[in-house]
């Protein structure tokens, strides 16, 4: 009987050791170089980074996660897939209003969702008569309705307001009212403005970000309006037209902030989009600029705390190289950490 008991204890001890080994992260899952080149090991405390201590020299790099600044994850619900690929935050730039209450709490979702709710447009305008017929747009005929809708969206947790412009969008005379109402709630204004006239009108009114790189050639005056503001790329969504690439090149040269965005839902790659990376390069961005557009620039623009520092959320990527030298490493992270959990 003593031998049997000893054998059981030995088996239990071995099983316990195996469990501990299985639960411990592999050696390369929490070590790598920071942006300043320092090799560190990340210590975790629940969902947060507890400490960064000196780590072994390694080929790995630790980087803040990817942010897609133009998606439609209600229209194409692939948030779980995005999380596993390193896209840990998205800006949903059109969804039915009832989705706002859910999106307002990032812990209810597999990724952080900054939601706009429905985009404001004219009665019968874009996208009400097409893909957005089921609540992806809201009709506003006058200044009172614009203000009332934005007040309501803000109360339900909208993180940004989107305006549909161009020929079948919101009346241009209402753009200043919409911008003022949104800014009163400390919300940024994104505009669907593919034409020069709409981009200029939005710029004059103080809108914050172009939801797409416009496809119509932009005048020098329009380019100047967007100095110091932002433009979301979405180049692949429009086929990478030469005029669109030139617009992005000129906007960037004038001082506009470039934010990576794919128009996910209209495009169908559930993760970092290699086509978008290639077109950003064709528009003149080098690897460091592409990396910034995908990670640090949108984090700063949207106010997301993704720094690798003690006390911050333990959400970061482990990469097989420095993305500033080769942005393609962002397409296939070695490991993805999300709020203290390894999800890939």
SSE topology sketch:
Layout: H1 2-23, E1 31-33, E2 39-45, E3 48-54, E4 61-63, E5 66-71, H2 79-85, E6 87-92, H3 100-103, E7 112-115, E8 119-121, E9 137-139, H4 143-155, E10 160-164, H5 175-184, E11 188-192, H6 196-205, E12 209-210, H7 220-225, E13 230-232, H8 242-253, E14 257-259, H9 274-282, H10 287-294, H11 296-302, E15 316-319, E16 335-338, E17 341-342
Parallel strand pairs: 5-6, 6-7, 8-9, 10-11, 11-12, 12-13, 13-14
Antiparallel strand pairs: 1-2, 2-3, 4-15, 15-16, 16-17
Structure description:
With about 350 residues, the chain is α/β, with parallel strands linked by helices. It has helices at about 1-25, 80-85, 100-105, 145-155, 175-185, 195-205, 220-225, 240-255, 275-280, 285-295, 295-300; strands at about 30-35, 40-45, 50-55, 60-65, 65-70, 85-90, 110-115, 120, 135-140, 160-165, 190, 210, 230, 255-260, 315-320, 335-340, 340. The chain has a 5-stranded parallel sheet, with helices on both faces. A 4-stranded antiparallel sheet has the order 4-15-16-17, with helices on one face. A 3-stranded antiparallel sheet has the order 1-2-3, with no helix packed on it. The chain is globular and about 60 Å long.
Strand elements, count: 17
Distance between the termini: 46 Å
Strand coverage percent: 15-25%
Strand adjacency order, main sheet:
10-11-12-13-14
Largest sheet data: 5 strands, parallel
- List segments where confidence is low: pLDDT < 50 over at least 5 consecutive residues: 1-24, 104-108
Share of helical residues: 25-40%
The average pLDDT value, as a whole number, equals: 91
Q: Helix and strand succession?
A: HEEEEEHEHEEEHEHEHEHEHEHHHEEE
Q: Nearest-angstrom radius of gyration?
A: 23 Å
Q: What is the count of DSSP helices, taking H or I runs of 4+ residues?
A: 11
Assembly type of the chains comes to: single chain
Structural class label: alpha/beta
Global morphology: globular
């Amino acid at each position: 009987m003593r031998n049997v008991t000893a054998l059981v204890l030995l088996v239990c001890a071995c099983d316990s050791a195996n469990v501990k080994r299985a639960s411990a992260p592999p050696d390369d899952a929490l070590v790598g170089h920071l942006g300043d080149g320092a090799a560190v090991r990340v210590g975790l405390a629940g969902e947060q980074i507890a400490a960064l201590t000196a780590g072994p020299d390694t080929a790995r790099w630790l980087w803040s996660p990817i942010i897609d600044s133009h998606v439609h994850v209600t229209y194409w619900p692939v948030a779980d897939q995005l999380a596993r690929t390193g896209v840990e935050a998205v800006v949903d730039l059109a969804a039915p209003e009832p989705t706002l209450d859910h999106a307002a709490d990032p812990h209810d979702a597999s990724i952080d969702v900054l939601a706009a709710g429905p985009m404001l447009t004219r009665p019968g305008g874009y996208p009400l008569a097409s893909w957005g017929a089921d609540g992806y747009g809201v009709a506003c005929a006058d200044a009172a309705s614009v203000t009332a809708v934005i007040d309501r969206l803000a109360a339900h947790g909208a993180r940004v307001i989107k305006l549909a412009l161009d020929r079948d969008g919101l009346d241009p005379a209402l753009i200043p009212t919409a911008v003022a109402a949104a800014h009163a709630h400390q919300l940024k204004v994104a505009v669907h403005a593919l034409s020069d006239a709409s981009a200029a009108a939005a710029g004059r009114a103080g809108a914050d970000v172009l939801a797409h790189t416009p496809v119509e050639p932009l005048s020098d005056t329009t380019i100047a309006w967007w100095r110091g503001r932002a433009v979301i790329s979405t180049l692949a969504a429009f086929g990478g037209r030469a005029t669109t690439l030139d617009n992005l090149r000129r906007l960037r040269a004038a001082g506009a902030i470039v934010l990576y965005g794919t128009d996910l839902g209209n495009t169908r790659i559930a993760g970092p989009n290699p086509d978008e990376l290639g077109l950003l390069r064709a528009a003149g961005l080098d690897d460091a600029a592409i990396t910034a557009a995908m990670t640090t620039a949108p984090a700063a623009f949207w106010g997301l705390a993704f720094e690798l520092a003690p006390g911050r959320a333990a959400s970061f990527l482990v990469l097989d190289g420095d993305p500033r030298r080769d942005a393609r490493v962002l397409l296939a992270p070695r490991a993805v950490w999300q709020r203290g959990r390894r999800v890939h």
